[in-house]
Amino acid sequence: MADIPLKNIRNFCIIAHIDHGKSTLADRLLERTGTVAVRKMKAQLLDAMDLERERGITIKAKAVTLHYDFQGETYELNLIDTPGHVDFQYEVSRSLTCCEGALLLVDSFQGVEAQTVANAYAAMDHNLKIIPVINKVDLQHARIDEVTEEMEQILGIDPFEIVKCSGKAGIGIDELLEAIVTRIPPPTGEPDKPLQAMVFDSHYDDYRGAITYVRLMEGSVQRGQKLRFLRGGLTHECLELGHFVPERKTTNALRAGQVGYLICNIKSLKDVFIGDTVALASDTETQPLEGYQPPKRMVYCGLYPSDGQEFTELRDALEKLSINDPSFEFQPETSEALGFGFRCGFLGMLHMEIVQQRLEGECDIDLVQTAPNVTYQVVKRGGEVLNIHRPQEVPDSGEIEEFKQPIVRVNFVLPIEFIGTVMTLCQDRRGTLKSQEYLSATRALVTYDLPLAEVIYDLHDKLKSSTRGYGTMDYEIIGYENADLVRMDILVNGKPVDALAIICDRRDADRRGRAVVKKLKEEIDRHMFEVAVQAAIGSRVIARETVPAMRKNVTAKCYGGDITRKRKLLSKQKEGKKRMKSIGSVDIPQKAFMAILESGNEGSK
Description:
This protein is of the alpha+beta class. It folds into five domains: about 5-185, P-loop containing nucleotide triphosphate hydrolases (Rossmann fold, 3-Layer(aba) Sandwich); about 195-280, Translation factors (Elongation Factor Tu (Ef-tu), domain 3), CATH 2.40.30.10; about 300-370, Alpha-Beta Plaits (2-Layer Sandwich), CATH 3.30.70.870; about 395-480, Alpha-Beta Plaits (2-Layer Sandwich), CATH 3.30.70.240; about 490-600, Elongation factor 4, C-terminal domain (Alpha-Beta Plaits). Helix 12 packs antiparallel against helix 14 (about 590-600).
């Protein structure tokens, strides 16, 4: 393994829209190169996480080293399998930095989709050699000619360069491996130069500590050498190094151009930074490599243990998770209604859902999640700019000069008969049409600018249902712009419930307020006194519902007699209820919070 020359190394990744067959194609490449024995083979072998197998999607990028014999020479192919969902674009960008080439996969029936376009442009930005591949050619309803035309028109790809294959049936795998060897350039770098290695991922092993995934840009590293992590500023001895095949396989040295792992007896993943540069401890001259752009967290929500006792377990679980997933962040916060918890930032709604499921599944913690909201900007009258991650941080309306919301550019790729439906969908969400072009006789690309808050909740679901599953979307954040936004508070018995406050457009406030108080009225149990549930903007109440009091029949024991006796008992009961209302506290059950949060975009268009 160590004697493979640099010119015979190929580093590549597979990029595509979600569900176009990346992981299945990776299985065939592993099988064809003999990397995995047939008896150990299983579908989507690289998707090792339980959640990935359960949902059938890739969440974490994986690295694996293959060996392929071609024209009498052995080639080392380092494959990085990447996720396809827009929320995990950050994983894809890290993988692209470590490669010289990319397989751009397109489904033979679905054709070029929104995420295909985004990934292709990202690969072009990294100056990668793109090998276009049409996958699933064995489908009965494959549209190979039309898809070839789409790839030529949209991405400017030469039709003669396209490799046709099937990841499921194993068709065209040899042609694909040949294309990887002949078209993708070998990595640059010299084994004799000082060591420079890029950390592109890491995970924690209970027995070995932090395992660091690296791509060597220059130089070489051997077992026993002292290594320095430039950003962390720490020095560690290299105890073990090797390749993923896809299990860890040890080797004595890694050289420039190779992808592998290092085990350096690092006790905590806090000491490993994604995008860091590894150099030899004796070398003080090495400059850090250009790392990654920090991920932009755009969706925030509160996570609280349903039992307040589990706070420390939740903190430990979040720390463990945030180390393996640098695109997720958290900080402690308290809520009067829910107690101690954490404010967490995510790349998108699917990312949030995945983190929550991993916490509940892997760490066995029962969670309560507050309504997700995006990051807003407030410019105060004095010129100070605040980033607002939760509604409680919004200052009084008198102090606000400008209230800005994040705007995203959304690209929809859809059949032309659904253009009108999707336009209506976007107009209802205050979108601005930017462009519309026809990709072929049957498909179009429509671009809108929309508020991010309108996109993340349910736009994807609505798009799928209104285009019968054929429409796809991809979005990128383009900045902040002014909007007429307000903070809506929910008051129960006159007291604001901080966990239920939301930021919304003023024009939507009445509708959303009415929907929330109506839902709360159904969920809050009746008390011995009546409970007022109100939605308010500032001091103005915009919606109200009343949970009626339970009544005991205090006059039941009055058999006849004077009416004043009954009146006396009733007025006594009335006084008691009045006093109870002023000192009594309303218990809001957990399911009431959940009901409101499930209808987070209550009464959605």
